[in-house]
Amino acid sequence: MMQPAEQIFSCGFELFGRVQGVCLRKQTRDLATLNHVRGWVMNTDEGTVKGQLEGTLPKVNELKFWLLNFGSPRSIIERAEFTPTKEITSHNFSRFSIRYHNVSAPKKAI
């Protein structure tokens, strides 16, 4: 059985409002890295920011609180949605990263 300090928890999130182009992904990554939280964050085509958090429950909750109440200085978070926080047996990510869309080039007509 894992000790409470070793237990790992995970949850997803999606942020709505003025959340793109305001350094929110970078500052989320920086705060997550500082707090030993792993996962990812990315912009969506719908104008939101989505991500996944993994870490100890206090650290995951700290990031959730920051995302819900603060965000980056230029962001305006109108709404934050979180999936239920669940205990996981091991990390799925080795670090916290910013993900980018894989936009493929349009195919040329032959």
From TrEMBL:
<dbReference type="InterPro" id="IPR036046">
    <property type="entry name" value="Acylphosphatase-like_dom_sf"/>
</dbReference>
<dbReference type="InterPro" id="IPR017968">
    <property type="entry name" value="Acylphosphatase_CS"/>
</dbReference>
<feature type="active site">
    <location>
        <position position="25"/>
    </location>
</feature>
<feature type="active site">
    <location>
        <position position="43"/>
    </location>
</feature>
<dbReference type="InterPro" id="IPR020456">
    <property type="entry name" value="Acylphosphatase"/>
</dbReference>
<dbReference type="GO" id="GO:0003998">
    <property type="term" value="F:acylphosphatase activity"/>
</dbReference>
<keyword id="KW-0378">Hydrolase</keyword>
<feature type="domain" description="Acylphosphatase-like">
    <location>
        <begin position="10"/>
        <end position="100"/>
    </location>
</feature>
<protein>
    <recommendedName>
        <fullName>acylphosphatase</fullName>
        <ecNumber>3.6.1.7</ecNumber>
    </recommendedName>
</protein>
<dbReference type="InterPro" id="IPR001792">
    <property type="entry name" value="Acylphosphatase-like_dom"/>
</dbReference>
<dbReference type="Pfam" id="PF00708">
    <property type="entry name" value="Acylphosphatase"/>
</dbReference>
<comment type="similarity">
    <text>Belongs to the acylphosphatase family.</text>
</comment>
